[in-house]
Amino acid sequence: MPALTVVVPAYNESEGLREFHRRLGKVLDGMAGIESAVLYVDDGSRDDTWAIMCDMRETDPRVATLRLARNFGKELALTAGLDHVIEGAAVVIDADLQDPPELIPEFVAHWRDGYDVVYGTRATRAGESGFKKLTASGFYRVMERLSTTPIPRDTGDFRLVSRRALDALAQVRERQRFMKGLFTWVGYRQLSVVYHRDPRHAGQTKWNYWKLWNFAIDGITSFSGVPLKLATYVGLLTALGAFLAALWVFGKALLLGDPVRGYPSLMVVMLFLGGMQLMALGVIGEYLGRLYVEAKQRPLYLVDQYTPPRRSAQAS
Prior knowledge:
Mean pLDDT: 77
Low-confidence stretches: none
Shape: elongated
């Protein structure tokens, strides 16, 4: 019988966790011929998220719980959850109910048809500001241009991943993880399912604009070397412009003379060149910092407590 584990990373999601589990349980109960389990991953929550997870484990034999030693971030919490799926496929979904659990049976149907990765593509994003929608759309399109790995537009972590795709992901142990790119990088047969994203059921989003900016930087530097090339090209163009300007100044001095003037323009040129140099050094520093993190070879995450499901429940 096919096995399916729903992996749910959560950080301070106590307000909506029980409602999420109610809807998810209803979906799993209605899926015939699937041996299902749910793995909740507590990413160092500061509220009573862990207590609620343990309570759901006691009342639902399908539930397993995994608590990390501290808050490692969503990408590593998701990695920890997938590492603990030892049989069958996995579905990744957030606990905020923006991604509807009711879409899982459609994912499973495509999986049974032979697809290894079935991902949800957002047609609409309810409950989000216009600025956030604009920046998110721009990010995916920038990634599409910069990355050699074709990362799907408007696609989050909500997806089904087959056993062999999970095994492939388990071989990728880089520390600076951009899971949306890694899911695509493994290849195999992939399919998009378009859906309408709902507003958050309860609580507040943990992703402010600063975190989203850093997340975008991680994604770009993980899957593209274009910023390094861009810094090189900008430097070459700037040097060429400075050379042409020097020829113009030299020619003007020979033909027309050169009274002592031009301090403002000199300062503008100096500040411009200095800014371009600092920008190039910053780009190099981003990549160098990631190499430093990878070179230390620290564990991706540390587990505080893991409790497997008491049994796998077969849907009737």
